[in-house]
Design brief:
The complex is a heterotrimer. In chain A, 30% of the residues lie in helices and 22% in strands. Chain A is an alpha/beta fold. In chain A, the strands form three sheets. Chain A has a six-stranded mixed β-sheet. In chain A, strand 9 (248-253) and strand 10 form a beta hairpin. The longest helix of chain A has 19 residues, at 147-165. Chain A is globular. The two termini of chain A are 30 Å apart. Chain B is built from 14 helices and no strands. The termini of chain B are far apart. By secondary structure, chain B is mainly α. Chain B has helices spanning 14-39, 43-50, 53-63, 67-89, 94-119, 126-131, 139-168, 170-175, 180-202, 207-211, 213-221, 225-250, 254-276, 278-284. Chain C has twelve helices and no strands. Chain C has a single domain, classed as ABC transporter involved in vitamin B12 uptake, BtuC, CATH 1.10.3470.10. Classes of the chains: A alpha/beta, B mainly alpha, C mainly alpha. At the B-C interface, helix 2, helix 4, helix 5, helix 10 and helix 11 of B face helix 1, helix 2, helix 4, helix 10 and helix 12 of C.
Amino acid sequence: MRKAPAEALAAPLSGGRPAPATAPLLELSAGELRRGGATVWRDLSFAIWPGELVAVLGPNGAGKSTLLEAVLGFLPLASGALSVFGQPLGGLGGRELRALRRRIGYLPQRRSFDARLRLRAADLVALGIEGSRLGLPVPAVRGLRFGPFGRAQRRRLKVRDLLAEVEALPLANRPVGELSGGEQQRVLIAQALAQDPLLLLLDEPLNGLDLPSQTAVSRLVGRLCKERGIAALLVTHDINPLQDLVDRVIYLAGGRGAIGAVEEVIRSELLSELYGFPIEVIRTAGGRLVVLGGPERIAYHHDHR
Amino acid sequence: MVALPALADPFSQPFMVHALLAAALIALCAGPIGWFVVARREAFAAHTLSVMAFPGGAVAAALGLPLAAGYYLLCLVAGAVLSALRGRLGRLRWLQESALVGTVQAVALAVGFLVLALYGGVLEDLEALLFGSPFGVSGGDLALLVGLAVVVLGFLAAFGRPLLLTTIEPKLATAAGVPAGALEGAFIALLGLVVAATAQVSGALLVFSLLVAPAAAAQRLTASLPRSFGLAVLLGFAIGSFALLLSYWTNLPPGFLLSTVALAAYLLANGAALLQGSFGKEVAGVRP
Amino acid sequence: MFGHEAVVNALIAGLPLGLGGGLLGYFAVLRGEVFAADALSHVAFTGAVLASALAIDLRLGLFLATLAAALMLALLGRGPLVDDAAIGIGLAAILGLGVLALHLVATGALGGEGDAAAATLFGSLFTLSRGEAELAGGVGGGAALLVCLLFRPLLFASLQGELARARGLPTGPLRVAALLLLGGVVAAGTQALGALLVLGLIAASGGTAHRLARSPYLAALLAAALAAVAVFAGIAASYVLSPLPPASAVVLLLALPQLVTVFL
């Protein structure tokens, strides 16, 4: 791996935004992560602030999902410092780590549900609210509000509110397996919002969705970030559906990473530095970004695969 | 089981020769069919068919037929039932299928028990049926096995490729016009017959040792299709004959030796694959 | 009918087992552990055979063997190494041990008996002693209660394992608990229905419930109810129609709704 010029990559590009006065939700300094003896990425530094939607891009195997797992504390850094919500991850004990994770909304890479699985969208979201509670849930009965019934009513209302927030309220009683890909993603996002997270980590939520759904889901996440004042890291392969919605982009390739606005990062010079061989970025007449490059595995940014 | 001096030449004993021939013929059938069982993840269905020995034997005893006949017959019937019921489950059936197979198995056994209770008898050869009687293989049994081998190999020669396609790429196969339902039905029927045959040597409860273990081991050792088929047959015969010879020399029950040798072979194959690194690649290479 | 000691004992054992079996059956179908349940029932048989061959209390061998196997399955996890084929091969090897034990008993090398084997295969619902019935019923009922207690975390972990883990749920211990509970019910059920038929308890009602109910909670409730009703009706039917063995009656009644729903 060629050593890239330090100035170009080591310092995160500011992307034209003035640094806000609030503390960053997520901060990584000179992070290095190794897996199976090999370095996945190193010298990675960035900070994420509330309200930001940040896309994580890069070719297969670049370590995008790994980055999310590191933020969740499932993978330790080989070197560097990672702090989440102002707390350095390294020194946290088990309980504190679990408490931290509860404030992070996570959407792992989607596995589709069996169409006949008797699980309604509302049930899925309810699991997000109380999936770790022991005992059987009391059903919400109209008119009864004391004790556990009150809790059940509040749960029911919260489920409705969450589904409404992701514009999926009509789907509440539909079996999850019968929903389209985009609809399932909305419900999963609602589930992730159930614990009022400060940070959303979405691992390839747009995979397999048609273009309108990709745009709709991206737009939803962007809106949630602004309205709730949270941040979201969204791993994806194709920047195009999100181009106008993301605030910044983290591009991982060749063991290095760069962060900044779309125009700053997805450029021929910078990507060539990252990958270590010539990459050409073309903007089509329609405004789409196409990345073309050398013999190794690279990502093709076109609108439909 | 007959007790013999440990050093006498096994090959001079007709029952031993018959047993080894049976093992060879069964390996020929069970190897390729078992390969498909592993590839199609139908281990549970195969086990269900194998325990049809009990109701098959019970029904046969009640009707005055030889036990093996009842077994073969019921295996075919159970195969047909499974096939028909799965067809009813529809396209997305992974959740329901195992529940259905389990139910069919329990029902068949319950009926067998009921028949036994009604018939008022005791199945004398129950242990042999359940745990194998390789040393009781007759010339007639061998002839039957030869016939079965011909049918199995003929079927695979004719329909092996479409079946493979349906197994690996079901949508592609349907698009190419492969009659998946009919093929799968025929496969299950054949599986029933092979299971019943295998059980002659291994016993109904231990069919996995000769049906699944050789194929599973072969698939771990090589990714090449023709090689893994051939290896499945060879391993099946190796496991079978080794266990039978051990049984001859030590006087320990063949069923026990068979299942233990099969497990050992499977573990060794996995170990070899792990060392080779090919296993690791297969496991890790999926997620980007 | 209720005057007979045998029937009362059968109900004491059977009804809680129905509830526990139904609930665990719901989860077993959801988690793809039906074949594992089958394997565990065969291990139960081998445990009983080994115990009686070694002249130890049969129930001890039954439970120990089944729970040990369940623990091993849980620890091995699920993956390319531990698929159904592997479980089957391991199962055959364990049964082979049982064969060895029977052989050693027959040749006099071991002091125990080999007769217990047959009873374990098909159960002894009407010949249970009060103590045996209470043990079986206790295990079944206890398992049912534990499943109710752990219902939501178990459901969450079964449906969305990675997410549950990220949420802080102890998915590893939950998996162990689920399989141990399954093993316990299978072992206890083996006494009532026999090793060969206890699979029906797990597979049938779970399968039906998944097809019929709207939500997971209703499905689990339905599975438990169907199973308990089938047990009761089976015992009653067997009592009335005397050559009908109780285990057969129960299993046939358990299977009936499942087969009916498949044709709907």
